[in-house]
Specification:
By secondary structure, the protein is of the alpha/beta class. The chain folds into 2 domains: about 120 residues, 3-Layer(aba) Sandwich (Rossmann fold), CATH 3.40.50.720; about 190 residues, Rossmann fold, CATH 3.40.50. The chain has 11 helices and 12 strands. Strand 9, helix 8 and strand 10 form a beta-alpha-beta unit. Helix 4 packs across helix 6. The two termini are about 25 Å apart. The mean pLDDT is about 95.
Length: about 325
Amino acid sequence: MKLIMFSVREDEKPAVKAWEKRNGAEVITVTDPLTLETVDLVEGYSGVCLQQRIDVTDEEIYRKLESFGIKQIALRTAGYDIINLNLAKKYHLKVTNVPAYSPTSVAELVVMQALRLIRNNPIVEDQMNNGDFRWGGMIAKEINTLTVGIIGAGKIGGTAARLFNALGANVIAYDPIVREELKEILTYEQDQQSVLEKADIVSLHVPLNESTTQLIDAEALTQMKSDAYLINAARGPIVDIKALIKALKEKKIAGAALDTLPNEQHFFNFNFKNQSLPDRDLEALMSMNNVLITPHIGFYTTVAVQNMVDISLGSALEILQTEESKNEVY
């Protein structure tokens, strides 16, 4: 049993070696993503595993995978929008994801961002970097006095809700699926607007699909309190970024923390030191001292990386051995 894994980072390799040893399968790792230029590397292998920002859109890639005898594509991510599911189905390729690699990793980042925002850390640090150590007028809020609104109370959103609840915050949520086990720590609202109107901190935890693209648009931002904060550690296109920039400039909301942005594949994980930033929206956000930007690192912990490798390769093995996996996305 030989698997090929694309876009492999150095920090993933120990986890891959450990999985190989436990499962008696061979995994060949390459640093390049799966593209039309690299798809021929798959020939001779039994299965494919991916984690990349580049969309797999070319039909020829899917045709070649089928011609090589490939039955599946295992993603090392929760999101699967880089895959054209219609083409995968056409060429008889089952697609799996990692639905919960470590809810705690993302949830902890969200809590950290929330605490930094309400303590005015971005503004204080900006002033200090310019030699101004005054703090007058920047009185902070305590998390136990605030209402945190969770939009999308699934595995990650539910974990974030538990952490905020443990800190004494009042937690509310909107999710079409009501989970009884979360009712002890949060109150479900009837719709998204209710969460936006009531929350001092709004945290987004929804998957990216047609219904959630630009879920937070100009209208949604007007429903938020003027002293509220928006946190997005889900997917970039969930927020209409130009509407957010406008709302921040006009002080319609107090600030934002963003671990993900639209078009991030063009700048996150690149080094632009002593260069101009390649994206105007990123440049605008980076210039604001009430905005926190992190380069999509919510997932990046030792536990999460190990789980992403283990679960994705395990799903590939399941399909190769039994033709099905609990992590299939269609």
